[in-house]
Amino acid sequence: MISKTHQQMLRGALGGALLWSCGAHATSYMNLYGVFDTGIEYVSHASTSGGLFRVPSLTGEVPSRWGMRGVEDLGGNLSAVFTLESGFNPNNGTLGQGGRLFGRQAFVGLQSDYGLVSFGRQYNMTTWALADANVLGPNIYSISSLDPYLAVARSDNTVAYKGTFRGLTVGATYSFGRDAGGTGNTPGQGTCFGSIPGHTSTCSQWTAMLKYDAAHFGLAFAYDVQHGGPGAAVSYFDGTPSTPLTGEMDKDVHTTVNGYATWGALKIGGGWIGRYVTTEGGAPEGRYDMFFANASYTFTPAFQVDGQLVRIVNTHQNTRATLAVLRGTYSLSKRTAVYLQSGYLINSAHASYTVSVGGGGTTPPQGATQLGVMAGMKTSF
Q1: What is the pLDDT of residues 135-155, one digit of tens each?
Q2: Cα 82 from chain centroid?
Q3: Which fold has domain 2-380?
Q4: Domain residues of the chain, as ranges?
Q5: What are the residue boundaries of the Porin domain, all occurrences included (predicted)?
Q6: How distant is the alpha carbon of residue 234 from its chain centre?
Q7: Shortest CA distance to 57 belongs to which of 20, 17, 13, 95?
Q8: Measured between alpha carbons, how far is 253 from 270 in angstroms, rounded to an integer?
Q9: Cβ 164 vs Cβ 212: under 8 Å
Q10: Cα angle: 264, vertex 265, 268; to 5 degrees
Q11: Helix (H, G, I), strand (E, B) or coil at 331
Q12: Residue 130's CB: how many other CB atoms inside 10 A?
């Protein structure tokens, strides 16, 4: 179901249907996979003029994408792996991630009993740490509405390691230039190309994760540090831009602590996400604390309901918001589902968070409440 398939999608394996042999070994293969998710959305108080209807571009239940994933058995429990994944906007057919051909993932690596070492554009540990506790995933109404970076955190020029040992997963990434494409379309990252002579930390990023999964519960911790540089993104804390991270020692830091548990058809999860931005001199430019709790219940093999409650408190900008989300999904087959969902956002007097992920012309006036409703359909291959 959805809460389970979200993690499968992050691994680039959802709905793989086309399989070619890439060698003599039975474990060598290549998959072509993808998901198409779109619908119609209504957002109230999208501006001072009122609400609007639209076909959203970024996501519905999940972002639309297609990709290729391959494994070659090298012998001795060692395999070469690769993933190329392209995001696209279903409302107009354009490429996502600022027009990149493989803007979601593009990496190659070696997989062994000791874990995976990979190189390229890939998800960092903030994404993996949230994969199980956040049952809504990168939904159009979710924790990502209040911080778009959390939708699917990734970076360019990245060396990554992730391995699982008796339920304990350890992982780390280091990026030499977190947005070398210079598109400015990766949430929270901007056009930050990479290190320059004499300034090796410019535009770098590192993340680390510890995660433990048992039969019916799991816990995760992640730490994520982005360094600034020329052209780096503007930080968003209350729906409006604040300080650009232009200095090498400027930092944008996310800390994630969460957990989940399952009882039969019920799954619950929740956690805390803390974020702060500091300039080169060490002065704080922004800080928030976000708390979320959610649950998912599978009533029948075809019908599932998910809900989430999120609270964000930013004392530095004196802004706060509360978001409630309810989503129902009915599977027409193993590959195709329809859904109806709604999010209701309450902003404090000086806040202008938006209920819909990424904003995109739906930012409300300060202090306004906002309702989002979306009816959609997704199919995978």
Answers
A1: 999 999 999 999 988 988 999
A2: 20
A3: Porin (2.40.160)
A4: 2-380
A5: 20-348
A6: 19
A7: 95
A8: 20
A9: no
A10: 95
A11: strand
A12: 27
